Amino acid sequence: MYAELIRALADDLEGGGPTRDLLGGLAEDDADRPTLFVLRLVGGLHRLVLDGKTPALAASYPSVGGAWDREAAWPHVLEALAVHRDALRAALAQAPQTNEIGRSAALAGGVLRVADRFALPVRLVEIGASAGLNLRFDHFRFGSPSGWWGPADSGVSLPGAWEGLSPPVDAPLEVVERLGYDLAPLDVTRDEDRRLLEAYCWPDQPERLARLRAASAIAREVPARLERRSAGDALDDLTLVDGTATVVWHSVMWPYLDDDEQRRVLERLDALGATAGVDRVLAHVRLEPADAYDGGYPVTLTTWPFGEATVIGTAPAHGLPVTWTA
Ligand SMILES: C[S@@+](CC[C@H](N)C(=O)[O-])C[C@H]1O[C@@H](n2cnc3c(N)ncnc32)[C@H](O)[C@@H]1O
Question: How far apart are CA 251 and CA 35, in angstroms?
């Protein structure tokens, strides 16, 4: 759907139509510094649809019960560009925000390994957490060839989440603290923030939207502390706690950090790791793009004491399925 919609918008932009007028210089700026302006624009359109402001266009959006039809949709897209210009300009000024629940499948397997190895209660710390939905991963349900892990009545059920070697599903897991940090955190108890996250979900991927909504409902029941802080600043203030394993986790946020902040985070983790012991553990679980892994992202686990990094699996960008290799 978005391939067709974006192609139509691109043709209109190149032809000097209303898309060019709306975007102003954004498309040209993007050549110097990627702004993801296309995702901003289609997110803004989806937001109008979800808010019920464009009933005619909604008929082409599967997320609200419509069926995508490029020919039928295009005149209503043009109408929306004209009628809702202010709302779309506001959307263009905002960086896209996503919180992908499928990525919790990688986190769950990493944390289970930490719980299995050290048998300590877990403090979960997420940098680039967005709305912090994945901080509630232990309230989600993950399917694998050997069965399910997680509460049977969870609203977030991810069939086929795990493939390959099974994570240690019998590990004693207790999450005692949930801390999330983001430059632009979203609060799913606010309708406005929840709607924003939904708008960046692609309208013809109803399963992603459904799990986002179900995870938001869980997040309203299971508290987590979410703060507006950069990854570097957040880790500078982090300390380890005796009798716990502190698990620092992040997914698909690393490319947003500049080289200095990336280095700062890694140096801070090493420094914290130097203070770790078997009853005061630090772990780093990450699902991030890497050049060496064509078509998939490695899931990496590092634990201190010892400090060795191991690739324990691979996953596609949205996390499902994770193929566990270690
Ligand atoms: C693509 S989203 C991924 C969100 C979430 N980790 C997930 O996987 O669903 C990237 C997130 O990183 C955040 N971010 C970007 N730069 C950051 C920084 N320097 N420090 C903390 N968060 C940052 C953004 O605000 C955004 O929420």
Answer: 20
Question: Is residue 303 within 8 Å of residue 247, measured between CB atoms?
Answer: no
Report the distance separating Cα 268 and Cα 123, nearest Å.
17
Structure confidence by residue, pLDDT tens digits, 109-123 = 999 999 999 999 999
Placement of tokens 């996390």 in the chain: 319
pLDDT of the residue at 29: 74
97 lines ligand 1 (CB under 6 A): yes
Residue 54 CA, ligand 1 centroid: distance in Å: 30
What stretch(es) of the chain map to CATH 3.40.50?
101-324
CATH number of the domain at 101-324, please? 3.40.50
Among the listed residues 312, 318, 325, 262, the one whose alpha carbon sits nearest the alpha carbon of residue 295: 318
pLDDT in tens, 82-100: 999 999 999 999 888 899 9
CA separation for the pair 97, 192 (Å, rounded):
13
Q: Which DSSP symbol is given to 222?
A: S
Q: What is the mean pLDDT of each run of 10 residues along the chain (326 residues)?
A: 97 96 83 79 98 98 97 98 97 91 98 97 98 98 97 97 96 98 95 95 94 97 98 97 98 94 98 97 97 86 93 95 96
Q: pLDDT > 70: what percent of the chain?
A: 98
Q: Supply the residue whose CA is at minimum distance from atom 10 of ligand 1.
A: 253
Q: Answer yes or no: is the C-beta of 257 below 6 A from any ligand 1 atom.
A: yes
Q: Cβ neighbours of residue 82 under 8 Å, at least 6 residues apart?
A: 18
Q: What is the pTM of this model?
A: 0.92
